[in-house]
Amino acid sequence: MEDEIKGYQFETCFGMGNCPHCVISSDIIAKNLEDILRNRDLKSFLKKRTGGSLKMHHELRVSISDCPSACSRPQIADIGLIGACIPHITDNYCNSCEACIETCKEDAISLNNDRPAIDNKKCLYCGQCIDVCPNGVLMKGKTGYRIQLGGKLGRHPRLAEEIPGIFEPDDVVNIVEKCLDYYQMHNKKGERFGEILVNKGRGKTLDDIFRYLLLHFI
After folding, report:
1. For a designed S-S bond to 63, which of 77, 164, 168, 182 qualifies (C-beta 3.0 to 4.6 A apart)?
2. What is the fold of 2-79+143-216?
3. Torsion angle of alpha carbons 9, 204, 216, 28, nearest 10°?
């Protein structure tokens, strides 16, 4: 098994050319991130930390999905990226056709004074409402990635936790590098990133952990 281990696993979804739901193309950022992972030589790093033979569950997992459908399962990766686009409400005339309301699977859109209103607590920033708006009332706003950290399966599975905000590709690369710095600095026995976040954050809220990461590493 150890001959097959690289020290990391990297997964992407179908991408812009094959999926009608893509919000952003990850082709360039995927290449940059895989180069970063390869250059870290995580196999040698983990072998030193574990002090024995490596197994698949030791590998760091990074996953990119170009839309919130998340086919590549970023929610259970150590570092997961999900494509996102914030709908921007313009001043264009709205004919109250409700196409955006019918399209939204999250019930995040309603009409307020004959204008669309978006509930950001429900919106997953998939951009599908933008595609069906006939008058351009809804247009693309900020486009980038949601970043999730610390997901894993195994004996003690956990879903990744999300850093608040939507980040542009260049910022994402920098953030991932800083997260890898943190992961390697605090990895003692081959722990997964989520275990490190939990152990370092005992007695702290999730927001405290992310503020620490953002302040010192991101």
Report:
1. 77
2. Sulfite Reductase Hemoprotein; domain 1 (3.30.413)
3. 30
